[in-house]
Amino acid sequence: MNVIIVGTQWGDEGKGKIIDILSQKVDYIVRYQGGSNAGHTVVTGNKEYIFHLIPSGILHKGKICCIGNGVVVDPAVLLCEVEELSSKGINIGKRLRISSLAHVILPYHKILDKLREKKRTNKIGTTGRGIGPCYADKIIRCGIRMVDLLNPSIFRDKLKDNLREKNEIFKKVYNHPGYDFKSIYKEYLNYGRLFSKYICNTSILLNQAIKHKKDILLEGAQGTFLDIDFGTYPFVTSSSAFSGGACIGSGIPPTKINKVIGVAKAYTTRVGEGPFPTEFSSAFGKFMRNKGNEFGATTGRPRRCGWLDCVMVKEAVILNGISELAIMKMDILEGLKTIKFCSAYKYKGKVFKEFPHDLEVLEGVKPVYKEVSGWNKTIGNSKRYRNLHPNAKAYLNRLEDILCSKITMVSVGSAREETILR
Ligand code: IMO
Ligand code: MG
Fold this sequence. Notes:
The chain is of the alpha/beta class and 422 residues long. The chain folds into 3 domains: 2-100 and 197-261, Adenylosuccinate Synthetase, Chain A, domain 1 (3-Layer(aba) Sandwich), CATH 3.40.440.10; 103-194, Adenylosuccinate Synthetase, subunit A, domain 2 (Orthogonal Bundle); 262-421, Alpha-Beta Complex (Adenylosuccinate Synthetase, Chain A, domain 3). The chain has 12 helices and 20 strands. It has helices at residues 15-23, 75-87, 107-119, 131-139, 152-174, 181-195, 202-211, 244-248, 282-291, 310-320, 359-364, 390-403, and strands at 2-7, 28-31, 40-44, 47-51, 64-67, 72-73, 96-99, 103-104, 199-200, 216-219, 259-265, 268-270, 304-306, 308-309, 324-328, 338-347, 350-352, 366-373, 406-411, 419-421. The strands form 5 sheets. Strands 9-7-5-2-10-1-11-15-19-20 form a 10-stranded mixed sheet, with helices on both faces. Strands 14, 16, 17 and 18 form a 4-stranded mixed sheet that branches. Helix 3 crosses helix 4 (131-139). The longest helix is centred in the middle third of the chain and has 23 residues, at 152-174. The relative contact order is 0.15. Bound molecules: 6-O-phosphoryl inosine monophosphate (IMO) and magnesium ion (MG).
């Protein structure tokens, strides 16, 4: 069975936890897009691990973890992760595989990301990890791939070409001194040497695994509304975060995908700029942010918080082909008198049941809310669905109706065991 896990909102839905649970049941775990803009923390026993690039499935013995061709790799971040895992006694051995086709984030990408952001009138609020500039180079065909780091003469030529153009831009547009060829060349060739044992043709590896009836989990970073096509452009990330990106970013054909599972938080959060129709007022937003500990795992920025937006999640269900949903952080809603969810938008007297593409409309819409009663009793130790507070169940039932999808997993706390599987 080959399953895609995808976020249905603006990232930080809690994909990491669902991936961690489902990783135990598969043979291969694949990251298919994004880079070190993603981040999640896994706590097992008394050890804490922070992942940006390597699938957290690496913590489970015997699992093979692939960084797919669709990912942009910052080798310095990857090296930190490899070293941290080794120092904590995790044997990576031959279990980490990096696509030779994955593009490499270079120092100039990270600086360009920050400088461009500074110059923009409408800031995106990027993570500053060089994601956009690296994907831009990939598309305009001057990118450097992992395989290039293994070939000194190809890498030299490509790096020289890039620096020739980029240093001009740095000087003339950004008043920045630019980059010296030698130090980057040396540093990145060394990364090539260090990672050579992991770099391979991951698409063939995965297709062979499929032939041998192995199970694969494809993990998306970010979420549907940060997707470069379907998200709230330009306030998005630069890759195909939705389920379609899984094939492009792994080399697994669409005919071999069996299921797509969507992950949604029981409310909504967003990091960075851009429209957010159901955003809370600032006082309630602050209250919920602290209640849910909504601070970015990568940049530590406070996340904006709001009610669950079913217009968005429903569209995500359709776009991704989701047949099952995991609803996360239900425990954070406990103690609220009423819980709202948005079922439509209103703009200039017109009702919108679909997510508007016009940014001005999206920025101006008023959410139409439905309400359910809240619950006071802690739901953190409900191990079974039937033991959930009736009002929590009522909320989930309403969501199943409006989102046209089954809810098969409900998270009621941060621990792995605090997840109800239906
Ligand atoms: P995970 O995998 C939340 C947001 C940034 C910014 C926009 C573009 O943890 O869900 P980028 O650096 O990608 O060019 O920034 O996307 N963003 C995320 N928000 N979770 C993430 O990842 C994110 N990755 C990028 O805040 O608004
Ligand atoms: Mg995040």
